[in-house]
Amino acid sequence: MSPSDMIDDQPVSMNRVIAIEATMDEMKSQHEATHQMLQDVLTRLGPVLTRDVQDPLLTHSAHHSPVPSIPTSSAGRKKVSLKPSFPPEFSGDRASRKAFLTSCRTYIRLCPKALEDNSTKIVWAMSYMKSRHANRWATREFEQEAKTSRLRFLDWLDFEDEFRKDFMPLDAEAAAINVLKTTAYFQGKRSVDNYLDQFHNLIYDSGYTDPKTIVVKFRRGLDHRISTALAGMAFGRPSDTDLEAWFRLAVRIDQNRAADKAFHVSHRQPYPPTPSMNCPLAIS
Predict the structure, then answer these.
(1) Is the pTM for the entire model greater than 0.85?
(2) What angle do CA 232, 234, 235 make, to 5 degrees?
């Protein structure tokens, strides 16, 4: 190679050196940024981990030991502590008997460790029977326990059975069927939502399971305007076995009627004021 060629190649070599130095500077900057990011993460995780975990690149080169793993977010996740509502006080009122029993079941299911054995569950439930017939019933049970040194209930299910016998009518099924044969359960001036609340309870107590029978009973008790709208549907009529579809459709029609009524009331033009007897009309 001639001296002139070596002189010509010097600018190229210098450019390569500069490019290599720039690449190394960029890698060094990236390493420093990564190191700083790792330190920030360790700082947020706590001082213990910050002391124990070092820069993985330095640790590997100096000691050739594995880097301690950082716990994932799921490992440090705290358990949510449920605080269900306590059952309401029960006086023996038959209208609230189901609500009381359901509330007891819910609490027992959500707090199984607090109420592990049957005896504790039963005494805990009876502690909410604080007035009237329910209180007298619980008092008799505790007095009987004092004589025999044990409660007469075999387990929680046995307690529920005895509770139903004393606080729920034995002829609940016959009573519900009789109501559904009259007009006593009809919607009247109530909304369809409120009508459905009572209707569901009656169907449950009556033991009716045939969907066609339930649909007939439901439509029979509806406001006649809603019932007429359902009967006149040419399209979109639900199947007679689809109870939920009938319920939803009746609620939607009722809501549309209420919205239409509110619209017309809000846009109703007020009557012109009546001239006062003491203020004669102006004569043009």
Answers:
(1) no
(2) 130
